[in-house]
User: Which sequence fits this backbone?
């Protein structure tokens, strides 16, 4: 049977994906890492924290405890001290050490390549699992939905939802799996540089002609020759 023709919504999403691909061909994950283990821990630490701040603490974290076994056995108070700048450091230390124990006890110290196994680890949700599988293993398990993706997909008319799970479901229905990994990276780059939360730079946006600007307040036009009020 011939493949079904893409819907209007799918064509819109594909046009956006093409525009982002042309604008950010080399986009990549902003979290610095050398392997899947480091990416996993860095992603857990990135919750409610900027990637830049996470990148400030992970070099020391992995210098002191370079493996899941080492980090699992580290004194919690020392781990907390290193990751403190990322915020919620007690809860995050508990999560990353619990995650490491799970890696050691259930997976021989290796990061699993299955979504179902990843989300069973402490501190690992679907978003974190998608980041690791997509970036470290090039496995398109889903679409990463962070605050930038949530904001931009709404503005671009790709979804009406605010819930990350529902947004991901909409995007997976609109885009083929080969687009899932890089679409998020590129959209995040675009959100940081152009489509900012408070003042989106619409005039500089490569997607301006495609964007319905949902929820973006238009500035009132200025009069050509404003008269002084006396």
Assistant:
């Amino acid at each position: 049977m011939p493949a079904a023709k893409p819907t209007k919504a799918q064509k819109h999403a594909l046009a956006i994906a093409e525009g982002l691909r042309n604008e950010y061909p080399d986009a990549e994950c902003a979290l610095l890492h050398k392997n899947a283990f480091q990416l996993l821990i860095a992603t857990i630490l990135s919750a409610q924290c900027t990637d830049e701040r996470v990148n400030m603490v992970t070099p020391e974290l992995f210098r002191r405890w370079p493996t899941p076994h080492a980090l699992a056995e580290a004194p919690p108070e020392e781990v907390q001290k290193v990751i403190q700048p990322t915020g919620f450091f007690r809860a995050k230390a508990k999560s990353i050490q619990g995650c490491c124990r799970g890696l050691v006890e259930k997976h021989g110290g290796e990061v699993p390549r299955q979504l179902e196994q990843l989300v069973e680890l402490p501190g690992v949700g679907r978003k974190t699992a998608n980041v690791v599988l997509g970036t470290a293993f090039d496995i398109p398990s889903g679409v990463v939905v962070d605050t930038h993706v949530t904001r931009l997909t709404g503005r671009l008319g790709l979804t009406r939802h605010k819930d990350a799970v529902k947004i991901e479901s909409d995007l997976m229905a609109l885009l083929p799996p080969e687009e899932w990994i890089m679409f998020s990276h590129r959209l995040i780059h675009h959100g940081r540089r152009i489509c900012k939360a408070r003042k989106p730079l619409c005039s500089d946006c490569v997607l301006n002609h495609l964007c319905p600007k949902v929820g973006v307040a238009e500035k009132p036009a200025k009069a050509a020759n404003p008269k002084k009020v006396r």
